[in-house]
Amino acid sequence: MAYNITDACVKCGSCADNCPVEAISEGDEKYVIDADICVNCGTCVDNCPVEAIEEG
């Protein structure tokens, strides 16, 4: 199951910059993770400064 970015996202881009498979893109309100591309590595979670990413 892919990770989800919550409304706590501050759109810093750290998650997208560090995603090894480029599964994260900037949305209107927050960054979003493409579940079809995500490999569940957890790199985004490790790099989020506001802990806005959770396993979903």
What is the SS-derived class? alpha+beta
Q: Judging by the overall fold, what is the CATH architecture? A: 2-Layer Sandwich
Number of domains: 1
Uncertain stretches? none
Q: What is the beta-strand fraction?
A: 15-25%
Report, as a whole number of angstroms, the end-to-end distance: 6 Å
Task: Give the helix proportion (percent range).
Answer: 10-25%
CATH class: Alpha Beta
Tally of separate helices: 2
- Helix and strand pattern: EHEEHE
Strand sequence of the main sheet, in spatial order?
A: 1-4
On the 0-100 scale, what is the average pLDDT? 96
Total beta-strand segments:
4
CATH topology: Alpha-Beta Plaits
Overall spatial form: globular
Main beta sheet: strand number and arrangement?
Answer: 2 strands, antiparallel
Radius of gyration: 10 Å
Short characterization:
This protein has 56 residues and is an alpha+beta fold. The protein has helices spanning 14-18, 43-47; strands spanning 3-5, 24-26, 31-33, 53-55.
Structural account:
The protein has a single domain, classed as Alpha-Beta Plaits. Helices cover 18% and strands 21% of the residues. The chain contains 2 helices and 4 strands. A hairpin with a 4-residue loop joins strand 2 and strand 3.
